[in-house]
Amino acid sequence: MRLRFTKMHGAGNDFVVVDATRATLRVDASGIRRLADRHFGIGFDQMLVVEPARSPDTDFYYRIFNADGGEVSQCGNGARCFVRFVHDKGLSAKNAIRVETRSGIIEPRLEKDGRVTVNMGVPIFEPARIPFVAERQALTYPLEVDGRKREISAVSIGNPHAVQVVADLDAAPVASEGALIEGHPRFPERVNAGYMQIVDRGHIKLRVFERGAGETLSCGSGACAAVAAGIARGLLDSPVKVDTRGGVLEIAWTGEAQPVSMTGPAQSVFEGEIEVERKE
Fold this sequence. Notes:
- This protein has 280 residues and is of the alpha+beta class.
- 15% of the residues lie in helices and 39% in strands.
- The chain has 4 helices and 18 strands.
- β10 (148-156) and β11 (160-165) form a beta hairpin.
- The longest helix is centred in the first third of the chain and has 13 residues, at 76-88.
- The radius of gyration is 18 Å and the shape is globular.
């Protein structure tokens, strides 16, 4: 089966985007892993699939698959690429669309300056809903990682995040520790491990080890989680500039039961076709 795709990135977080509005995409987890291989396939952090709307008040359904083939509920950088893709492909003439995901409805909007703003929903701090194993809700939790105690904030932005504040982002043990946090038993559905360096109350630097993908150049939901955690702890003030290794995001959150807003770039890189084994 020939698969047509568009390669895109949002602040360096790279994707393959597939239009499945007219025909169902039939690729299994092993097929996705082959496509994600940067030597023998296309190479990407996540595959984004555009499907027809499943609810009458939405425009599309949005599916996200990590490079390991697992399906996840949310991807903020991907959401920005999603609206850019459907607009560029003529699938919708709207600058703002309503998109259903496994974790709820998001509303990405194409701005006049070419950037995209996404309503990422209300951050979740209740441990059971993240999910995270804890006796009670708190702003921070001790987490034992390889015999060392780490202080993390646990929050969900459609997917779970463990955010810790570090003094020097370049020296943070993202590569060595990120995988240990990702598979920590207190996170039954695994977790994205975020490392945040606070520059000032309106500016942070961030690295994220994403579940199923490893460290990526940028993580949109991770940026939202870090800012929400920082504001909740009284360390940051909205809006916050987030420097990732792939680019700059702007995150705004007024707190309480309000949604997080993310603004950032979305860029197409190239289009192509590849032969894939079809799942029967």
